[in-house]
Amino acid sequence: MVLVLALGDLHVPHRAADLPPKFKSMLVPGKIQHIICTGNLCIKEIHDYLKTICPDLHIARGEFDEDARYPETKILTIGQFKLGLCHGHQVIPWGDLDSLAMLQRQLDVDILVTGHTHQFTAYKHEGGVVINPGSATGAYSSINQDVNPSFVLMDIDGLRVVVYVYELIDGEVKVDKIDFKKTSTSNSAP
Amino acid sequence: MIADDDEKWLAAATAAVKQNAFYMQRAIDSNNLKDALKFSAQMLGELRTSKLSPHKYYELYIRASDELRSLEMFFRDETARGCSIAELYELVQHAGNILPRLYLLCTIGSVYIKSKDVAAKDILKDLVEMCRAVQHPLRGLFLRSYLAQVTRDKLPSIGSELEGDTETHMDALEFVLQNFTEMNKLWVRMQHQGPTREKEKREKERNELRDLVMTVGKNLHILGQLEGVDLVVYRDTVLPRILEQVVNCKDELAQCYLMDCIIQVFPDDFHLQTLDVLLGACPQLQPSVDIKTVLSGLMERLSNYAASSVEALPNFLQVDAFSKLNHAIGKVVEAQVDLPASSSVTLYLFLLKFTLHVHSDRLDYVDQVLGSCVSQLSATGKLCDDKASKQIVAFLSAPLEKFNDVVTILKLTNYPRVMEYLDHDTNKAMAIIIIQSILKNDTRIATADEVDALFELIKGLIKDFDGLTDNDEIDEEDFQEEQNSVARLVHFLYNDDPEEMPKIIFRIRKHILTGGPKRLPLTIPPLVFSALKLIRRMRGGDENPFGDDTSTPQKILQLLTETVEVLADASASELALRLYLQCAQAANDCELETVAYEFFTKAYLLYEEEISDSKAQVTALRLIIGTLQRMRVFNVENRDILTHKATGYSAKLLKKPDQCRAVYECAHLYWAEEGENLKDGERVVLCLKRAQKIADAVQKMANASRGASSTGSVSLYVELLNKYLYFLEKGNPQVTGETIQSLAELIRSETKKAESGAGTFITSTLRYMEFQRQQEDGGMSEKYQKIKMEWFE
């Protein structure tokens, strides 16, 4: 059982002062094996903070990130899964499922983690699973009118991944979960 | 030389004491009263010496008085065996010299008291008077110390078994007071003793004597434990007599020590009720007394008292403790002209803590203390003293920590005035502390005036100091952290009221714009987003017909134009471009076409004139295309102009692959989901074909240089293929099966040429195409069936 935290679009300090306290108290160091961040932190303090939660930190570059050295896309393997990471402002039209599917085919990954829309989504399509953890701070978005703070925790176990989404709605943390299963260990035709 | 002599004498005396004690003990063991008395007298004779310094005498005294304990027990046993005390009392008086005689009398006297044969009061009176016979200061002091020690457990003290009536209590009180008075007088005389040997020795002796003041102070501890010392007795008898002695001793260390004793030993409500008297004694003390220790000790005790017992609080108001303390401190500070700044601030700090504890609802008191401190500081001017700065930070932090609410702090008119006295760096540090308080406590600053007051406090962070720029002096990382704190702060300056919020935005802007080019890129973005949030809320609410000019989305957007312009001037072009695009989207949502067009114009101009780095251009262009693709507010003409420009920029990117990608992304500008008139199938295909031409050029170059990243350009074709599929699925009639087929064949032939395959992209694309073909619902599979795919690898 491998725990992967997916979050992004914090936009600190441009659009938010910090993560919600209720989230911060849940993100305890030592419990999570990997962090995947869709980008737009935007400052070093957030990078350092995330590093304290888990040293294995992967970040893709958002358009407001202060550090220009983050990569545009990143691919990593965790257990039986290949994950792809990209902020999402590069994919036109923004938030378009078909365009995202194209990116997923291009990266050839089982799970594509992407952000930019500040809207949580998790769905399966022909090419695999797309997860958008939303904005961990509930930051303002020109794309999404009504943003609640959210992040995602993935529990990867063999060929199965359980996606837990945590959303802060009206001051309470609500949890939901979705199950995905890989049919085989490769992406080739079944 | 002298030290050696001292050691020698002490050694000799100690040996003698030991020897006599040994014989005394032997006599005790064989119940030989006569011999016990004889040897004890001899032992005590050693205490008659004048040769020892005070410290050494003390050591000898400890030895001897220790041994006397077994004698005391022996006396007790003797009386139990039937020996009459009166007789014993008689017997000891036969000792030859006064000093041993008196030690023995005290010993037997204490046993006498316990027996209750005679009234304790008589014995006590007797003893305390008899001790007068020893007028030598050092010897007399220790004799009386012994008297106090040996009678201590025979007095009616709190919690002891010895009860008594008021009379007994008064007698005991009188005894202790008298002993204290006499000891103090002896001690005072020691200070002014005639010329002793050399000056050095005198100094040393004086220091040693100071330590002995503890023996005097012991009596106060005993007093504190006595039964029957209630407020009235304390106020009318005890305190005046003690204070008289304290003032008379005229030694600053002793005075400090004894005052502190009084404060620690007696109950707090006594102090409260006698505050006048206690404070009144302070000016009478030696000018060199460290008054701040005394006063701070007092205030701390009173603070804790208030904190621990709510019922006592009204008493504080009743005796007007605050003004008395404030006044007393004022007088002290006035009188001691050489008092360093850090000391006077410390005094005010303690008064402030006291006020916060006791009168936390009285902001006017708190402000008063701040004001007094300001008056004091104005005499010294700006501080360069580290210690004083630290104290001022502690001083300013105290109300912050108490109230945990910066809004309350903003009401203290003297608070900013105190901050003026900090040096630049400390001022900034204090500003950060204030901001941290807001962040930690989630404090809302909800009015424009409060915003002004707050920015006044943190102005050290907001702008350069007195026209000087910090420049090289400040660490880059520290500076960024500082400004990021200010940025975070902006999100707490907030009011739901749509009338007040625009005012807040305007005020924030006013302050931030004084920051200069280094600060603006860090502080303007949060302001912009705060304003955009406001605009969204305004759209959601009802139109206010009576609202003033500032409260329309248009006015706010106008303000934002002017604000982001400033960023562009401060050479933060990439950031400015992004913010213009954000504003354009907000204008779009408000249906303000001209405003939106204006923002796009500014963004485009920035792109053309300021953004020259290739990578930056790629990202900026992608953002432009992404934003434009979502705009619905433009009429056909405007849309065309902007789209045309964007496509133009795309074709002029430096690297060909980037060109290709940007151009095919532009295809999306001709196709929007909502509204039929936003779907221009032909233009879409034109874009894709244009992109393909660029890809062809890339392929040519790759083929020419044999094997150099030929996979890369095949990837471009695959990307294009995917784009065609996208528009095929969306129902673009201009995307035909043939178009896709020929592209697919091209990919196939290019892939064959290259050594490696096109990689997984083509595989997954083909798989996808096959998947769509197989779809049960007719529509999709129909489209895909049009594509002949015999060449499936």
From TrEMBL, chain A:
InterPro entries tied to this protein: Calcineurin-like_PHP_lpxH, Metallo-depent_PP-like, Phosphodiesterase_MJ0936/Vps29, Vps29
Pfam families xrefs: Metallophos_2 (PF12850)
GO cellular-component term (any): endosome
Sections of the chain in a coiled coil: none
Span of domain Calcineurin-like phosphoesterase: 4-157
Keywords from the named record: Protein transport, Transport
SUPFAM superfamilies to which the protein is assigned, alphabetical: Metallo-dependent phosphatases (SSF56300)
Record has Transport as a keyword: yes
NAD recorded as keyword: no
Biological process annotations from GO: intracellular protein transport; retrograde transport, endosome to Golgi
Domain of life per record: Eukaryota
Family statement: Belongs to the VPS29 family.
Database matches in PANTHER family: VACUOLAR SORTING PROTEIN VPS29 (PTHR11124)
Protein name: Vacuolar protein sorting-associated protein 29
Source organism: Brassica napus
Automatic annotation (TrEMBL), chain B:
Keywords noted in UniProt: Cytoplasm, Endosome, Golgi apparatus, Membrane, Protein transport, Transport
Source superkingdom: Eukaryota
Gene Ontology CC terms, in alphabetical order: cytosol; endosome membrane; Golgi apparatus; retromer, cargo-selective complex
Membrane topology category: Peripheral membrane protein
BP-aspect Gene Ontology terms: protein transport; retrograde transport, endosome to Golgi
Family membership noted in the UniProt record: Belongs to the VPS35 family.
Protein name (record): Vacuolar protein sorting-associated protein 35
